[in-house]
Amino acid sequence: MTTPIMSERRVSLIGALLVAIGPVSMALYTPAMTELVRVFDTTESAIKLTLTLYFGGFACAQLIAGPLSDALGRRPITIAFMALYCVASVAATLSPTVEVLMGARFLQGIGASAGIAISRALVRDLFTDDRSSRIMNLIGIILALGPALAPTIGGLMLPVFGWQSIFLLMTVIGFLVIWVALFSMKETVTADPSRLNFKALGRTYKALLSNPQFLSAALVMGGALGALYAQATFLPFILMDEVGLTPAQFGASMLAQSGSFFTASLLVRQLMGRFSADRLVGPGLVFVALGSLGTLTLLLWPPSFLHVMVPVATYSFGIAFVMPAMSTAALAPFGRAAGAAASMLGFIQMGSGLLVGSLGALLGNALLAMATLIPMMGAVACVSFLVYRKIQPRPAAAAPADTRATCGPKVTAPSPVSAPEK
């Protein structure tokens, strides 16, 4: 057995930091959204657009970040994108108008996009099967802490230090990621600039989208995890405008969402010692369905803190059961194009949140959008998992374990992006 160049724990910690940069940048910002309407003397729709543009940059840039890391290496692309993130964070801090803030948030999203694509590619470079699922679970546990604390931190910083302090904190986080990439992260692919072939990349993405296992697993992730990003567009205005919470109270209330996800991730880690990750997806989707039904009742009864957040917490609880197995399943057939596969998975996941958030903005009523669109996302996740189960081959007779399938080589030399593994 060849020992991977980074341990499971190191990959988990680095992966969690890279994944967290996007959600943390979103969660720190949400308590300030109502305040920024007043600061820039603008409309609620304009401030919502700053979040939508962030989602747009985050989702679309992943399609480039992952393949770039396949061709040029994981470390240099991480550093380059995070440098852009830091510059955009400084620009947001100094924004004189809401239009400048919109541009800065869009660039922030582009910079943060490398995190989710490269973290998953790192895991796929070195590990597969249940080892990969364990790492994805541990990433989820660590990841839950950042978004759990970020709204609370943002809500407390806002009245004391002002909205600019939130973007200064994002700048510091960006420099921390760069430091980790320079001194703790090992390169897991051999750079080959000749792989920057956009026609080949197009063929790779076509192969991904025509692969039933990838597409069904990615839609499960898009419907389940994508709902968290869509909810970020609705919840600040529901809880602060409809329910009447202050920014600090709103930040504290988001602990119900992230705390539920964190608790479930710990439980999943224990259960994975007895059951395979695949067997946990079904129970997780039961919680997603229950959370969807609870959210749907917002059409029937007026919102209160518990009426809004209990279904949100239930939905988040289920996501922790879904994420490890579905992330692994989506990337498994494409080890030689892990960056491209992780990018497309992230695009579907974030893109679903962007699409639903934009549809909610068009509706013009955050409560109506939350009550109708989030249950639709839960339904997409459940139906996609039924399709995924249907296309899976029947298990074959047990064969001797191939240890090479669970431990990556010291340095993976990728083949062209256009040639995904069969």
From TrEMBL:
Residues 11-396 form the Major facilitator superfamily (MFS) profile domain. It is a multi-pass membrane protein. GO terms for biological process: xenobiotic detoxification by transmembrane export across the plasma membrane. It comes from the Bacteria. GO terms for molecular function: xenobiotic transmembrane transporter activity. The chain crosses the membrane at residues 46-65, 77-94, 106-123, 135-160, 166-185, 214-238, 250-268, 280-301, 313-334, 341-361, 367-388. Belongs to the major facilitator superfamily. Bcr/CmlA family. This is Bcr/CflA family efflux transporter. It comes from Sulfitobacter pontiacus. The lineage of its organism: Bacteria, Pseudomonadati, Pseudomonadota, Alphaproteobacteria, Rhodobacterales. The gene is ydhC_2.
